[in-house]
Design brief:
Elements lengths: L2 H12 L9 E5 L1 E3 L8 E3 H13 L3 E2 L9 E7 L4 H4 L1 H6 L4 E5 L12 H8 L4 E5 L12 H19 L5 E3 L5 E2 H9 L4 E3 L14 E2 L2 E2 L5 H8 L7 H8 E2 L1
Parallel strand pairs: 1-5, 1-12, 2-3, 4-5, 5-6, 6-7, 8-10, 9-13, 10-11
Helix pairs in contact: 1-8, 2-8, 6-7
Bound molecules: zinc ion.
């Protein structure tokens, strides 16, 4: 774990927040048992501990957050293979999950291929969103490149899974006001950032908050569910958002 990640755990665990039971969207990259495809992956053992904590605290895990309190959404960025390998666990635990797919990575080593993605999308527990076409930082692109990243990815995914793709997740969490506007213009209803906080407290219209939990131990995880990472909001905005 990096020094930044350790520092993050300490800050989160120490913070007492009042926004207990606010609905939150959580970020993972992958889960693993035997084969681990990325160092951002969470062990199955830890992931199951997280799920138990969510449920013991009285939250309901949902596909889409509709209420201010009591709901948790699970999201996975980048489309790694571990979610496919461990789909029996997702099914057994009855876990709705949202997968954000980088369309140019489909079929690349350690990533879902077309058939696996289609198979997953047919599972009623799984919804698919776009994580752009090539995972470039959207706030560094010119208008033409930006439109291409967002529309091409949407088109590919809609062609594969056969339903409208309404959700976009920013690569590396980076965005600016222009990204928000163009994403909205090309048809994304919800945009997912990496800025922590209660889900329905919008940053901008339809720009959602999420909490990174992939490395969280039990103590940090419990704290995050109580808003322990809300304290990092300003730091994330500074790091991820440009006007
Ligand atoms: Zn990503």
């Amino acid at each position: 774990m990096s020094l930044g990640a350790i520092f993050r755990q300490i800050i989160i665990a120490a913070n007492q927040s009042s926004s207990y039971m606010k609905s939150r969207s959580l970020v993972y990259h992958d889960i693993h048992s035997d084969n681990c495809y990325t160092n951002m992956s969470t062990s199955l053992d830890m992931f199951i501990k997280h799920i138990n904590i969510i449920r013991e605290m009285g939250f309901k895990i949902v596909s889409e957050i509709t209420k201010d309190e009591g709901q948790i959404q699970l999201t996975f960025d980048d489309g790694f293979l571990g979610i496919y390998d461990n789909i029996s666990v997702i099914n057994e635990l009855d876990l709705p999950v949202k997968l954000f797919i980088i369309t140019s990575f489909i079929g690349k080593p350690f990533h879902l291929d077309k058939n696996q993605l289609v198979e997953l999308s047919n599972n009623p527990l799984i919804t698919i969103g776009s994580h752009s076409h090539s995972h470039r930082r959207l706030n560094t692109l010119d208008k033409g490149e930006l439109r291409y990243e967002l529309t091409y990815s949407k088109k590919i995914l809609e062609g594969l899974v056969g339903v409208p793709i309404n959700d976009l997740c920013y690569p590396e969490g980076k965005f600016d006001k222009r990204v928000v506007k163009i994403a909205r213009d090309v048809g994304y209803i919800n945009q997912y950032s990496l800025i922590p906080g209660a889900f329905l407290t919008e940053l901008f219209k339809n720009v959602r908050r999420r909490s990174l939990v992939q490395y969280a131990n039990k103590k940090s995880f419990k704290s995050i569910l109580k808003g322990g990472d809300d304290i990092l909001e300003r730091w994330y905005i500074k790091k991820h958002f440009k006007l």
